[in-house]
Amino acid sequence: MKLALVALVAGAGIASASGSTYLVSDDSSLYRGTIGGGPAEKFDFLGGEHLIGMTIVPDGAVVTGANPGDVIAVDDQDNGRGYNIYRVDNAFSGTPTLAVIGVSDRVSNSLAFRQGASGGWELYGANGLGQTFKVHSLDLATFAGLADLDSGFGVLGVGGLQFASTGEAYFTVNGDNSVNAYDIGTNTASAIGPSGAEFTNNGLEFLDGTLYGAVGLDSGRIAVGSWNTGSGAFSQLEDVAPYGGGVMGFVIVPGPGTLALLGLGGLVAIRRRR
After folding, report:
1. What is the pLDDT of residue 16?
2. Is 47 exposed, middle or buried (0-12, 13-18, 19+ CB in 10 A)?
3. Candidates 3.20.20.70, 2.120.10.30, 3.30.43.10, 3.40.50.10860; CATH matching 7-262
4. What is the pTM assigned to this prediction?
């Protein structure tokens, strides 16, 4: 199965993507770079961890072992009790390390936060088990699966899942290189269109209403770019590194200059842990 991932942050549109910092995983390797900023840094986790889903804890969310602004991730390997949930320390400066903060009993190819009707934050995962698109919610204290929804929408490998601030959701299907729409209220999915890119693994991320992501291209490169939610087309912004064929995770945050320009310096708290 082709797998992938992604995360959630407010930002400043396509023009402001320049200078934004991203993280992309390729199994046990993690790349950190800046849009328009030259070559990405590479870090290798020596414990054999495979980061398939990453997201950023939003302001106001109460998550076991993590604070707002922290990056959390999920492993694709069953450790006998489930799938490790990590906090990625020093994600955006210094050397990233992983701290286990829990174990999930659900297969999650992607992690995504969604603000519920009551205003509280909910955490969701997605997969394509049984070749249909499925989502599930995860308890923020225990990471146990709470609700499982099977849309019945046929897929060959689910990649990223992301919720827009307006409520609609989008997910990628690796088997046909497409991005698709999902309505969690009615549990229905619909095709949007092909990406124009051929990829194995991928991830999604909203930044100020624009859908971004990372893909493991069939040409053997990792690329970061934007997705057109009307047509499904993918536009490459960054050639990151050679692609090793592993599962992928992706997060992105606005650059310091963008936050200062918009007066959003306190919106996202990225803390370096000692």
Report:
1. 58
2. exposed
3. 2.120.10.30
4. 0.87
